[in-house]
Amino acid sequence: MITIDNYLDSHYIHRSNWLRAAVLGANDGIISVSSLAIGVAAASSTREPIVLATVAGLVAGALSMAAGEYVSVSSQTDTEKADIEREIKELKEMPEEELTILAQIYEKRGLKKETARQVAIELTEKDALGTHIRDELGINEISQANPIQAAFASGASFTVGGVLPLLVVLFATVKGMEYWLYGFTLIFLIILGATSAKTGGSSIKKAILRITIWGTIAMVLSALVGYLFGVNI
User: Fold this and answer.
1) Looking at residue 79, what DSSP letter applies?
2) N or C: which end of the chain has fewer CB within 10 A?
3) 119-144 burial by CB neighbour count: b if 16+ within 10 A, else e?
4) pTM score of the predicted model
5) Per-residue burial over 52-71, b = 16 or more CB atoms within 10 Å of its CB, e = otherwise
6) pLDDT in tens, 18-33
């Protein structure tokens, strides 16, 4: 039976927080590790330095992504908490002004002035702070930041994405390795784009085009750097 409690569970917006971090991490893992490996492979005639650079890039990248995501989302959380504290103070010091603001918000959404005022009064009586957090500040359970979840999703997905080009480095022939890396990386990116689009309910074609075009640019520029230096390692 469909109710208001379970109706939104199947909507894609519930996946936005962790999906964004996971796709960003996997995409960055694939592209950055592949680009690093391609740059080194373009200037190397042996496998060892390519493997070393790839592993170093994978480890450093995963830790950096997790830490960066945690710090970034934690900053967002701190901002949200600061605004909530401010809202608590304003509700105590100027309740009538806050009620008027709430009524104006509902009025702008399409309610008549009298109806908007009545809705604001009833919601304020039930949960004044919760109502203002949701409708004035725009913070809700779906959009609220989760630093631990974002950091884990980003770091783990970067590792998964970075392992893929590492496997190519380990098993592909050294001669022409940059071409092997480019070809397999495009396949990895296409799979990632299609999977993320399907999970998020967006256009698969657009996701694949977007992710492969930018991935190609990154890898071509990295290979160009390796060729320009032209140093055999």
Assistant:
1) H
2) N
3) bbeebbeeebeebbbebeeebeeeee
4) 0.68
5) ebbbebbeebbeebbeebbe
6) 566 677 788 888 888 9
How far apart are the C-alpha atoms of 123 and 102, rounded to whole Å? 10
What pLDDT does residue 7 have?
A: 45
Q: What is the distance between the alpha carbons of residues 68 and 62, in angstroms, rounded to a whole number?
A: 10
CA distance 118 to 124: 10
Structure confidence at residue 167 (pLDDT) = 94
Phi, psi for 187 (deg, rounded to 5): -65, -45
Burial grade of 216 (CB within 10 A; 0-12, 13-18, 19 or more) = middle
Mean of pLDDT values over 117-123 = 91
**Winning range, highest mean pLDDT, from 5-14, 20-29, 73-82, 141-150:** 73-82
